[in-house]
Amino acid sequence: MRTPDAIIITLVLGVVAATGCAPTAPYVYKQAEFDRRLPTFNREPTDISAVVVCYGSRKTSPEQVAAVADAECGKFGRVAIFARQDYQRCPVTTPVAAYYVCENPARSGERPARDGSPELPSAPDWIISPSGLTLEPKDTEE
Fold first, then answer.
1. What is the pLDDT of residues 113-127, one digit of tens each?
2. Which of 103, 94, 95, 92 minimizes the C-alpha distance to 51?
């Protein structure tokens, strides 16, 4: 192999590898999304009670994760309430799974906003750190 060919191949492989490591935006995890045997394949649900958001903790803020959950629950007139997170469900490119419960605004105790829409809960003020340790909520002094 000539040297210029080896350089080109190395550069192409490097670009492909770097692209695979690029940060991925948070997204809604849909279990069995590609299982064609299911009657729900390629169909939007008519209602949901929970949502799982996959994300990478290095480049994603809690507000971004909560916004994805709020949008998904909001499609069904519900509000997203944070429940927990772990490393057991999502793929390695977005290893953290944030679990939210989608509740009716009246049942969740949320106060309506001025425009009549439900006031969405705030994002948790902690996130799984890159080291995998769960950080404690920030202390707020008054």
1. 434 444 444 444 444
2. 103
Neighbours of 114 (CB within 10 A): 6
3-class DSSP state for residue 119?
coil
Nearest to residue 19, comparing CAs of 27, 11, 8? Answer: 11
Close Cβ partners of 67 (under 8 Å, ≥ 6 residues apart): 123
Tokens of 138: 């920030």
As a whole number of angstroms, the distance between CA 91 and CA 83 comes to 20
pTM score over 0.70: no
DSSP code, position 38: S
CA angle 33/28/73 to nearest 5° reads 110
Q: ∠ CA(39), CA(44), CA(50), 5° rounding?
A: 100
Q: State how far the alpha carbon of 88 is from the alpha carbons of 77, 83, 135, 140, in Å.
A: 28, 15, 18, 31
Which sequence spans correspond to the domains of the chain? Answer: 24-142
